[in-house]
Amino acid sequence: MDENTLQELKDTARRIRALTIDQIGYFGVGHIGGALSIVEALTILYYRHMNIDPQNPAKRDRDQFILSKGHAGPALYSVLADKGYFPQEWLHTLNVGGTRLPSHADMVRTPGIDMTAGSLGQGLSAGIGKALGHRIDGIDSKIYVIIGDGESNEGQVWEAAMSASHYKLNNLIAFTDYNKMQIDGYTQDIMDLDDLNAKWVGFGWNVLRVDGHSFPALNRAICKAKEEKCRPTMIIMDTIKGKGAYFAEGNLGNHNMPFDYDTAKEAIARLEKGAE
Amino acid sequence: MGKEKDMRATYNDTLIDLAASDERIVLMEADLMNASGTVTFKSTYPERFFDMGVAEANMAGVAAGLSSVGKIPFAASFAPFASRKTYDQFFISANYAHLNVKMVGTDPGITAQVNGGTHMSFEDGGLMRNIPGLVVFEPCDNVSLEKLIRKAAEYEGCTYMRLHRKGGNIIYKEDDEFELGKGVVLRDGSDVTLVATGLVMVAEALEAADELKKEGISAAVIDMHTVKPIDRELIVKYAQKTGAFVTCENHQVVNFLGSAVAEVLVEEHPALLKRVGVQDEFGEVGKLDYLKKRYGLTAANIADNARAILTQKKQ
Description:
By secondary structure, chain A is an alpha/beta fold. Chain A has helices at residues 3-27, 32-36, 39-49, 73-83, 123-137, 155-166, 187-190, 196-202, 215-227, 261-275, and strands at residues 29-30, 64-67, 143-148, 172-178, 181-182, 185-186, 206-211, 233-238, 257-258.
C-alpha cells in the first residue's frame, strides 16, 4: 500500500470517526465503543475493496456487508452517508422517532444496509445464506460480515461457523472485532474466549490475525482472504473499544454511554488536532 | 392422488414441480430429510438443497440470507424445533427484515406420536401467530396442501405451515381452489358452526357433523386452513347464521385457532363458543388413537361440545 493511499484511508477514517462521534453526541447517548473500534475495517472495505454503487444500492452482483454486531450501526451510517447512499443530514436523526437510522442496522429502513441485525449471533448465518445464494447464481462477489467478541458467546455463531466451512464458502469473509470488552466487563472476566484463533481454525476456517486499526495489515489480510480457494476466512482484529474518542477509548463503560454534544465537539477537535 | 399418500410426499412432489419452473425455490433441512420425505428433491436439485445439520437456528438465519439475495427457501424441521428453536432467528432475520422465508413445522401436535412430549408442539402455531404479518396455515388434505404450498410460494413474505408428515386425506376435489386467508365452507349448517384446522381436526369435525345430523342438528363445518390472517368475514357470516361455534385444533386452545375465532367474535359479533383442543397441557408419548382420546381431539368430544353449546343457546 503506497503512502498516498494510506494517507487517504487515514483521512477517511478520521472523517468517519468524527461523523460517528458527532452523530451519537448529537442524540446524547449511544453505542460509541463498538462503533469506533470498527472504523478502520469499515473504511478499508467500503473505500478500497467492496464492489458497490451508491447510486444503485441493489446492484445484483455487488459485494455485500453484514454488520452482525448491529449496535455499531452509527459507524456504518457515517460511511453510507459519506458515500452518498443518503443525505448526511440524516445522521442527526439517529434514534429519533420515525428515523430511518435506528440504533441497530436495519435493511428495511436504511438505504445501503444489506442485512438487518441487532439480536446478536444472527449475521453470520445470514452471510452464509447470501454466499450460498450467490454461488447458485454464479455471482462472483464477496460477502463480508463483522461480528463482535461478546457476540461470539452466542451458540448460533458456532453453528454458522461449522456450516460455512462445511459448504466451503470461500466467498465469505468475516471479521471479529476483538476489542476485549463486552457490556458487563472484560471478555476475559465475563465469558473468556480463550484461544479464539484456535477455535476458528478448529472449525475449518482460514484464520488471520491483524491489528484492526492498521490499514496495511487489514489490506494484506483481505487480499489474502480473497485468494482463498475453498475455505471461509475469519480475520480476527485486535482493536480498542472506543478508539479515537478521548472520553471513551478503553473505558469499560463505553458500550452504550451518554455524552453531550460539547463533549462530542471536543473529541472531534482533538481528533483533528491529532491529525496535524 | 390417493387418500393413502403421505402429506410429506405431496410436499416433496409439489416443491420439485415448483422448482422446475421457478429457479428461486430452494429447500432446507435440519438433518430430517428422510423424515420430511425430501430425498428426491435433493437428488433432482442437489445445488438447491441444503442440509444444515442439527442446527435449526442457523438454518433459519441462512434461509433469511438466501431470501435476501432473491431465493425462496422452504425450511423444515419438526414443528417444535422449526418454531421454538428458531424463534428469534425467524422473527428478526426473516420477519422483522421483511424477507421471504417459508418455515415448515412437521408432525404438529399429537401427530408427533411416539416421539412423545419433547417433540409434541401444542404451541408452535401460537408462537408463530404472535409474529407481525406472518401467514400461518395448516392444510387438511393432499389437495389443499399442494395448492396452498403454491400460494405460499407466490406470496411475497414469510409463512409458517404446519405439515402433517405421515398419512393423508382427501377432503377436496382436484380442481378446488384455495386462497391464503380464506376459510372454506365444507358443509353448510344453521344450528352450530364447527371451525377446524389441519389434517386431524377437519376430519374429526366432519365426522362430528355427521353424528349431529343424525340427531337433527345442523352443523356447518369450516376448514380454516389459514389461522393468520383469520377469515373475519366468514366468521361473522356464520356468527349471524348460527350464533354458536366449536373450534377444533390439534394445538393448545391458547393463541391459535380458538383464540383467533374468539377475538373476531368478541370484537365483531358476539356468539357462543367452545374450544376443542389441548387444555394447557404438555404432550406425551403414544399412538394417534390414544392421543386423540387423551386430549379430547375426537369427533365425539366435538359433538359433545356442540350439544352443550346448543343447550346454552336455548337458555
